[in-house]
Amino acid sequence: LRAHHYQFGKSDLPSQLITQNQVDYKDPGLLGKTPITPLDNHLLRQTHWTMGDGEPNMYNTTYNIVHTPKKAEHEKSQYKRGSLDLKGNNPMTYLTDYRENYIKKRADTVDKQPNLNKETHFNFGDMKNDFSTTSRNAFKFDPNAAKGVNAGLNPDLMKELKSTHYKLGYDDDIGTTTQKADYIPFGLYDNLKERKLPNDNFNLGDKYNNKFEGETIYQTDQERKVEGAVDIIYNTLKQAKLIHDEGPDIGGEYGPYVQSERKDMYLPYAKQLIDMDKAYYCFCTKERLDALHNDSDDIGGGYDRHCRNLPKEVVEKNLADGMPYVIRQKMPLEGSTTFEDAVFGSITVENSELQDQILIKTDGYPTYNFANVIDDHTMNITHVVRGSEYLSSTPKYNLLYEAFGWEIPTYIHLPLIMGKNDDGSVSKLSKRHGATSFEDLVKQGFLPEAIINYIALLGWCPKDNREMFTIEELAENFSIDGISKSPSIFDYDKLEWFNGEYIKAMPVEKFAEISMPYFKQAIKTKELDWIKVASILQQRTTKLTQIPEKIEFFETQPDYEKELFINKKSKTNLENSVTMLKEGISALNALTEWNHDTIHDCLIELAQKLEVKNGTLMWPVRIAASGMTVTPGGAVEILDILGKEESMARLEKGLAKLSVES
Length: 662
Known about the structure:
Structural class: alpha+beta
Oligomer: single chain
Number of strands: 19
Radius of gyration: 34 Å
């Protein structure tokens, strides 16, 4: 549970910030009053700022508790800005030294356990009325470095740098950016499951005015690398208008963002785990592992932990001899691991079910799971959004975070997207159900904004049950508590309905613009009034790919049978169609001005003169002009777009067809 409240008013009104974070708290209504359950990880934090009126004083109180069976931490901090005689010339500063597993709070006495040093500086400056803060978090401070704020980072160990800036200016504004989110891709192909992840992630980040790290490209499995797949990801984000704050293409303070370019940073972390007895070298050959995998009763998911407790001298000799190895995570053999998910709640997994997973492969590359933990932490990712099939791997992630002494991110596991089979059953969405990539859906004529809107509603329900959202409205209305635990079914018909509604709602000029490639696909030798073409198509189109077939008769009239002139509803037959065309040709040929209104008035007046229903005249004219029974516009619209010369030629041809074949 996290809440931010800012208020800054007139000179006599206070400015306040209240932040509350809660993990696994048993009674949210009694936050800070009920004892914390000692069995799980908990974090309780409350922060209050108040700026008074008569005296320029500022207070801050921060209360942090982390409670596990093995460690507890308690911190309180207070700020106060002095009396009026300080004016604005003397800054107010604050420094906090915050560590886990420390002996004393002085930087020169930090022990060799995982450490966290945090320094925060506030400066309330001169008459410009600016207020700013920068916060730096650095893990694994070098115990031998200088004291206090000048303590250096050990370059061989893991580092994190985080900056937060507040500014209070002339216009009484205050702002902050603190959180970052990353999503977990399922591979380099941007399928629909992945499409939902950055979509929800962008909504999560944008809603709270925070960062959306668009891409970290993972290449941990070199054999499965697909050329061009990265470009698909970039194109998808661009088409979807999901603008990322960081990534390989635009850089950022936490780069590089291509995993292969970060390769050298992972092995030191794995070796650090070995030193902490949280991982071990495994020298088992491929042949031995293949044999073990045939025995499903083996512990550790098929691996018998043969190398888990090798004597140190054996390990050192094998390494000296250059024997190939992998590094495995040493899972606890007893007890259970519990983690919190924002959607699925508290989940407990028995440690006996966890495999001693590989962290570093024989080629020196990290496995995806290991690289993901290291990258998320070093890139300061606060929220991990991924598919629910990754729930089972989360305990492994958390054990790594706990081994390093790092803060565990917020997990948001999304429900699976299923497809409907021919027999009515459902199964995990795949290509047999239809297009499964964003790019393929766009090629099939779906608008990016319609795809985003529809996918956002798969597994998420807005509070007011509305369906149509712009990307900005999704970011504004998105909330984690609206995410369902149940899988959703991808309904292509529903997506097409969404697409049609988006097409209908856009300005005709915009529709003409996005339809131009499809216009040109059908109309190659003519220049028509494309706005008029768009206007007759817009209300009748649900996918852009439908356009060429609908308008190709403007380019070349298809050969058609005279029986098309027969229509029971319009009361036309082969005989009266001849009369209608003769009269129509004569009346239309006399027009000196050719446009929609003059054509319409001419034919309506002619029908009245002939004492027939409008349809009795319009049907033969439309058939002769188009050669089709189903067209995006009626006779008047078709004649207007074709122009007088082409229209008269086609009507004469239709009359000749009736006369000759009669």
